[in-house]
Amino acid sequence: MILTEDQLQNLLDKSLAELPRGTEWAVTLEGSIAEGFGNPSSDIDFLLVARSEDDLPTMPSLLFVDGRRVEIRTRSVRQLADQFRAVEDGAKRPGRLSEDLLNRCQRFLHSHPLRGHALVEEVKALLPVERFREITADWWAHRARQSLRHALALLCLGETDEAVDWTRSGLVQTVKSWAARVGETYLEPKWLSLQLDRAARADVRDRYWLLEATAPAPGDTGAAHEYLTAALAFAAQLGLTGVPQQPERITVERVNGVTTWQTGDRVHVVRARREVFALGDDAGTVWRSLVLGRPLPQALAASAATGVTEPGALLATFLRYGLIRLAWKGGGTITPSLPLAAPPGPVTPPPSTARPLLSVRGAAVGGPRAVDLMPLPADRFAAAAMGLVWANVVVENAVEDLTGALQRGQWRVAELTTRRAVHAALRGLFSAYGVNPLPADSDLVRRLDLLPAATGRPIGEGAGTLLRRTVDAPERGDALLADLRSFIGLVRGAVGADSFPLSFESADTWRATLELGYDWLRIGAHLDAELPIEEARDLLASNGAQPHRTPAP
């Protein structure tokens, strides 16, 4: 220990003098100094133990005493007993055993009593140190197994550099598991070198440091395979089981709550009913090639057969984002994790910056290999998409009505119908940018400042002019219709709806409109998004067909 008993007692006296009096504490020194590690910058970690049933604060008090940083934590005997009990219960499933809980127990069991020795030893006896070594070794072994399986999968997918990093992590975890079985249970990996020195097995120590020193350079695929092979052999020598070098034992599996929706050629993947990922053409092709439950090498081969280059990188992206999961046959989902790091789980990338977000044929994406997160919740995404389609249907209906009104000389009807068409086109524009709920029709033109100026300004000018137009003669009517069509083309060009069917021109165009609307309605219904009109429920119920159809002869 880097501090003498007298130095520790002196620091303790000065620390306790700064705390409220009234409780009789047993005191023990925890952490790296108690373990025999530490250096002049290490904290002094005192744990104060009260013989009580109280819930004492978890947060430490931080003091500065004689130039040293001192952390004071408190625990009741009941809290410590509960911690030990929870660790013993969690040992049945080491993958779910909390690192923080294990660390708290480890620190106390290996602490150095300073006051109230009898009480400290009484509590330590609740979890024999031999049993704790087994639990800690199993905990590390589980993590090593997951990391090395993950490295094997990444290497199969061609993610060489990431595979090397996870191989190195798996090696650390393997050696920590071995060290725990010989009594070195301190969790913090930074002291691993001192732990290996103290374990007095030069062969293990030297072999580990040789592997650590010979990790391949970035991009060296051949060396990465050799490195993983050597790491797995060393892990097996140290007693780690369950990681044969057999990538065919890894399968690609479905993730609960992940669903696929296609509109036109665009594939959308919804994660946990909250987030929508839009896939570029290549990414969508690889996604559609997946047959869940297949071994990973087979899934990769099927993706490669599509002609998409480097499909493994796209599969790795799906894995990182939690859109697929990998499982080990007989061993459950592969869930790699690192100690003292962010908890494992799917990555959420920055939201897409593509604008506008939506077109009638699907979400906008940043390129053919894009797996873009939409920057709005899934239900609002679906509602905005349905709003976009429905707005364009209303535009088509309004243009048809305007044409009829002009033919009959119904000038006031024509003016009102023009305004209806303009407002519907603007609702579609706002929907394409993800605005939902929408502003009131009367406020749409004024709210165009919500959109990029290059889009909003010319459309706003055109909308303002049309909303003020009057008509009282056939010539002015023809000009109004031409200008409205030009305005609609401008808006649709801005939101990728220029291919929208002329809904009311024929049975075929109406059928195309229903099919387009149905694609989006299915997503909206799945996410409980608000439907644009009540009649949409009938379209869903009929699987995209008109509810009243003449039976085929």
From TrEMBL:
Superkingdom to which the source organism belongs: Bacteria
Protein name: DNA polymerase III subunit beta
Species this protein is from: Streptomyces fuscus
